[in-house]
Automatic annotation (TrEMBL), chain A:
Family as reported in the entry's similarity comment: Belongs to the peptidase M42 family.
The name this protein goes by in its record: Peptidase M42 family protein
Binding residue positions for Zn(2+) 1: H63, D170, D225
Cofactor field: a divalent metal cation
Record flagged with keyword Protease: yes
Active-site positions on this chain: E202
Cofactor note: Binds 2 divalent metal cations per subunit.
Organism: Dictyoglomus turgidum (strain DSM 6724 / Z-1310)
Any GO BP: proteolysis
UniProtKB/TrEMBL annotation, chain B:
Family, per entry: Belongs to the peptidase M42 family.
Keywords: Aminopeptidase, Hydrolase, Metal-binding, Protease
Protein name per its UniProtKB record: Peptidase M42 family protein
Domain of life: Bacteria
Organism: Dictyoglomus turgidum (strain DSM 6724 / Z-1310)
Binding site for Zn(2+) 1: H61, D168, D220
Record note on cofactor: Binds 2 divalent metal cations per subunit.
Keyword Mitochondrion annotated: no
Cofactor entry: a divalent metal cation
Catalytic residue list: E197 (proton acceptor)
Residues binding Zn(2+) 2: D168, E198, H307
TrEMBL record, chain C:
Annotated catalytic residues: E195
Co-factor remark: Binds 2 divalent metal cations per subunit.
Protein name: Cellulase
The entry's keywords: Aminopeptidase, Glycosidase, Hydrolase, Metal-binding, Protease
Species this chain originates from: Dictyoglomus turgidum (strain DSM 6724 / Z-1310)
GO biological process, alphabetically ordered: proteolysis
Keyword Hydrolase in annotation: yes
Annotated Gene3D superfamilies: Peptidase M42, domain 2 (2.40.30.40), Zn peptidases (3.40.630.10)
Residues reported to bind Zn(2+) 2: D165, E196, H305
């Protein structure tokens, strides 16, 4: 599998929270091609890919949705107002082109900013919020309606040799990693009963992953998400891209499984990093852990730069190493 | 329908004290349902059997926001805490209805400067309730600590617009009652009247657990943008139809439910609006999370002055909501 | 009463093992069934006369910290677990990890301060006596718990120490089990984990047990000190157990609330109605997990979520008395 290509394809698909179907469909097609699996889409839209086994039930989770925008109001001419699905810094939307999905196809719009010549001191100093932004729709503005969704119009590309830049790498990088893990598993005789859950709606807070965890009730749940890479956070270790998967630790993680996967990483010479979490990990891990009678959980993250912006950046090696570690861990039934 | 709305909105049932409204709703529905159940938390669940296998659930919350009397000082003045999203500003100049007596809100201010400061940054620490008692003993007899109160406000009929406290969410309750009265459901229809939504979607977190409907729709109020310098990024106007919610800050509606409701409205020429609510949530968020997950959405009534003693809705929006839901409930279209 | 011993055990949210072991050892021979569930909650059952299920809970965890980074100079960075005012941690002794490494949260000498210096967790470091990162790494690692050091003291009418929230509740549950009450319902005593980090243990217990109703025994806020306006107090020490009408996320069940007040009145037990609705408890989690009606009864306490909290011994006794009477009666 060309992980780079899969990731770029995933990045270019539009799958805002609640509207992930194109991404789900692509992942389903790839999964069915690369491994002997059973696939199912549940009533929330989560894709569950099962590699049947008799042993320990292990479920891996990666959310497929991306942050996006929605048209909330029509102003005069071609202008509309927008809101977000998920958290976005309003400044990063300025001077961006967005792809709006209307019932008659894609329309492009620009989030414009008043030219500097015309700005006064007040406008220059303003702390920009979404109330200050508007979108200027440049084609078929008549077919744009309130409720239409829009995504960044970014096309994924190679950044130097090891990096990919594109939108939605949060969390398509994890999805691609899980697909690669699935492929790598073909080289092993696997006893465990493994579920790959490509879930919906994480960015929105209702989170399809939790419902899937409820249904599957695995012996171990491993959540794959992204974390901030190459940025200094006081009191936190510096997580770097290119230094391997991040093993998260904290009250939402099962310490026994943590030690097992850490020891395995050392045995396999997989470079890894450790990231602490306090009350919340801000991922599906928190709620999956307390589902039903409780589920032992692990959280593994891929370092990512510029989260929730039109060009996020990941290192392909981090993804490959994560997949390598996971495939061995799964082949050993989580030991 | 105005009579029903008046009856329901005037009942005093804040979050955690839903007994009165629950009895009233059950009374209205008695002859139109095949059965009912009151679960451990106090949620009311009613149903009407359909011809085909499948379940549609409509939910409205029974509770309204209010206040809790927590302490009485030596002079007989009562301290309160909010139950749900009551802003202290909404209490100034309005009165609170406790079970046995009405109370009036005052603000602390030892100097005119302090009073001014308090009014600019009002919170529950700076206000108190006066029931006209002369001392602690007298006050405690009428409003012992632990007593709940609600806005004291009556229903007003302005013609097309109606105003009352607790439109949130007695309007939803009224709509669901009308749907039960008027419909001949194709699939089995469940109505859930949930408790303590204003506190944290409490009742709705469990109400659908055993029902496991194929789809669930919360019927609740939403905001508005059609008053002077109203929220500039939303477009919700009274009289332009019930609102089909795309998202709010608690959840995103299942897009298939959005499409279904839209199609029904368009095919039958019923006015509707599309809603994105910037701040606020409904029971749909809790319903979606239940167990293995339930596809859920919200049909909203645009409302002015939500969480104030005088919430205003347009009666046509309410009637059109009933129309849409009746068509949904009687439709023979496959559920999903 | 086991409050002093329980207070001294390190048991930060997510790391409740030692607390659980202590409790289990003391109660295991006095119950009909005992188990530790998948998340680490300790559940014990004592059968009653009637087939309905009552779940009574207290949480084992205390607020504390987790090692978040080991700095180049050998100092340890920490992030809080639970809600902690950073100002209460200056100049305190702490204990880190299974190896029980001692440390000090140092504080800048006043001589060297320029004006008022604000405190935040970003500039709080634990000194374990290491001068280089490598040296520190041989003793502690990222992910180790950091607990306030044990410091409990029994005074004539009071107990002071860390973690009275909610070792107070745990001690009450233990006393209830060991006192051989004639329980009315099948009573599940659940000592739960991770309450402070978001009410994370009680839901799983409720899901497993599916109780008919629940009582949460907490150690709660007061505010009865000279710096806080008397009308804003949550409760007062010396005035008896605190019965909560409503708090964040849940309005307690009216019938349970009225019943508790009735039992207190009829038996001349001093009690108070909680005056503030701030803060949440496991009652909210239990209600939204299994739809179980719940009530919160608490021991009033001063300075919770700090290394030095205070409880009045007679309030403890009265809380125990009230609960002992409730558990032998038909409630619902």
């Amino acid at each position: 599998m060309e992980v780079k290509e899969i990731l770029k394809n995933l990045s270019n698909l539009d799958g805002p929270s609640g509207y992930e179907f194109p991404v789900i469909k692509y992942i389903k097609d790839v999964a069915e091609k690369i491994a002997p699996v059973k696939t199912l889409i549940d009533n929330h839209g989560n894709l569950i890919v099962r590699k049947k086994g008799d042993g320990r039930k292990i479920a891996l989770f990666a959310h497929t949705d991306e942050i996006a925008f929605v048209i909330t109001k029509k102003e005069f001419g071609n202008y509309f107002r927008i809101h977000t699905f998920g958290g976005v810094d309003p400044k990063v939307v300025i001077s961006q082109r967005l792809r709006i999905h209307t019932k008659e196809g894609i329309s492009y719009g620009i989030v414009g900013m008043l030219e500097p010549h015309l700005q006064n001191e007040e406008i220059r100093q303003k702390n920009i919020t979404f109330d200050d932004l508007f979108i200027d729709v440049l084609d078929k503005s008549d077919s744009v309606q309130i409720g239409d969704l829009a995504t960044f119009d970014s096309e994924a590309f190679d950044l130097n040799e090891r990096y990919i830049a594109g939108k939605a790498l949060d969390n398509r990088a994890s999805c691609a990693t899980l697909l690669y893990t699935l492929e790598l598993l073909n080289q092993f005789i696997v006893n465990a009963d493994i579920y790959f859950v490509f879930s919906v709606r994480e960015e929105d807070g209702v989170s399809g992953a939790v419902n899937a965890a409820y249904k599957i009730n695995p012996d171990l749940a491993i959540v794959l998400d992204v974390t901030h890479g190459d940025i200094l956070r006081p009191s936190y270790p510096k997580i770097e891209t290119g230094k391997g998967p991040v093993l998260d630790i904290g009250p939402m993680v099962n310490y026994e499984y943590f030690d097992k996967i850490k020891n395995l990483a050392e045995k396999l010479s997989v470079n890894y990093q450790i990231e602490p979490n306090g009350d919340h990990s801000h991922t599906d891990t928190d709620r999956i852990q307390i589902t039903r009678e409780g589920i032992p959980t692990l959280l593994i993250s891929i370092p990512l730069r510029y989260m929730h912006t039109p060009y996020e950046v990941v290192n392909i090696r981090d993804m490959e190493e994560t997949a390598r570690l996971l495939s061995f861990f799964l082949a050993r039934g989580g030991e | 329908m105005k009579e029903l709305i008046k009856k329901l909105t005037e009942i005093k049932s804040p979050s955690g004290r839903e007994e009165n409204i629950r009895s009233a709703i059950l009374e209205e529905l008695k002859e139109y349902i095949d059965g009912y159940e009151i679960d451990k938390l106090g949620n009311l669940i009613v149903w009407k059997k359909g011809k085909k296998e499948g379940k549609i659930l409509l939910d409205a919350h029974m509770d309204e926001i209010g206040v809790l009397a927590t302490h009485i000082d030596e002079k007989g003045f009562i301290r309160i805490e909010p139950i749900g999203g009551v802003s202290p500003y909404n209490l100034l100049g309005s009165s609170i209805a406790f079970p046995n007596i009405e109370g009036f809100v005052g603000v602390e201010g030892e100097t005119s400067e302090e009073l001014s400061k308090n009014l600019k940054n009002l919170d529950f620490d700076k206000i108190f309730v006066d029931i006209g008692a002369k001392n602690k003993l007298e006050a405690e007899k009428l409003v012992p600590p632990g007593t709940f109160g609600v806005y004291s406000a009556s229903f007003k009929d302005l013609g097309e617009r109606i105003v009352s406290k607790a439109m949130d969410d007695r309007i939803g309750c009224a709509i669901i009652i009308e749907v039960f009265k008027k419909s001949n459901p194709y699939y089995t229809l469940y109505g859930t009247f949930s408790i303590q939504e204003e506190i944290g979607l409490v009742g709705a977190s469990v109400v659908a657990f055993n029902i496991k409907p194929d789809l669930a729709i919360a019927v609740d109020v939403t905001a508005h943008s059609d008053t002077p310098k109203g929220p500039k990024r939303m477009s919700l106007e009274l009289g332009k139809g019930p609102a089909i919610k795309i998202k709010d800050s608690a959840s995103i509606s299942d897009r298939r439910i959005v499409e279904k409701l839209k199609n029904i409205a368009e095919r039958n020429n019923i006015p509707y609006q599309i809603e994105i609510l910037l701040r606020g949530g409904t029971n749909a968020a809790a319903l979606q999370r239940t167990g293995e997950g339930i596809p859920a959405g919200t049909l909203s009534i645009p409302t002015r002055y939500v969480h104030s003693p005088h919430e205003m809705v347009d009666i046509k929006d309410v009637e059109n909501a009933v129309k849409i839901l009746k068509l949904l409930v009687e439709s023979e279209e496959s559920l999903f | 009463m086991f409050l002093k011993e329980l207070s001294d055990i390190p048991g930060v949210s997510g790391f409740e093992g030692k607390v659980r072991e202590f409790i289990k050892e003391k109660i295991k021979d006095k119950v009909d069934y005992i188990e530790t569930d998948k998340l680490g909650n300790l559940i014990a059952l004592k059968k009653g006369k009637v087939n309905k299920k009552l779940m009574i809970t207290a949480h084992m965890d205390e607020v504390g910290f987790i090692v978040s980074n080991i700095e180049e100079d050998g100092k340890i960075s920490i992030i809080p677990l639970g809600t902690i005012d950073p100002r209460v941690v200056l100049g305190k002794k702490v204990v880190i990890g299974e190896k029980q490494i001692l440390g000090v949260i140092g504080s800048k000498p006043v001589h060297l301060m320029e004006g008022y210096e604000k405190v935040s967790f970003e500039n709080i470091k634990v000194d374990i006596g290491a001068t280089k990162k490598q040296e520190a790494e041989s003793k502690v690692k990222i992910g180790d718990f950091v607990s306030f050091a044990p410091n409990a003291m029994v005074h004539e009418e009071w107990i002071s120490g860390k973690a009275l929230d909610d070792r107070g509740g745990c001690s009450i549950l233990m006393d209830l089990i060991l006192s051989g009450l004639d329980l009315y319902y099948d009573t599940f005593f659940a000592f739960v984990i991770q309450e402070e980090t978001g009410l994370r243990g009680s839901g799983s217990c409720a899901f497993k047990i599916n109780p008919d109703f629940a009582i949460v025994v907490e150690t709660t806020t007061s505010g009865d000190n000279p710096e806080f306006p008397p009308d804003r107090r949550s409760s007062e020490l010396g005035k008896g157990p605190v019965i909560t009408p409503a708090h964040r996320g849940y309005v307690n069940d009216e019938r349970l609330f009225n019943f508790a007040v009735k039992v207190a009145k009829e038996n001349n037990i001093p009690y108070q109605i909680k005056r503030r609705t701030v803060g949440g408890t496991d009652a909210a989690r239990i209600a939204i997990t299994t739809g179980t009606p719940s009530l919160v009864i608490s021991i009033p306490s001063r300075y919770i979520h700090s290394p030095m909290s205070v409880v009045n011994i007679s309030d403890y006794q009265n809380t125990l008395k009230l609960l002992s009477l409730i558990l032998i009666k038909e409630v619902l």
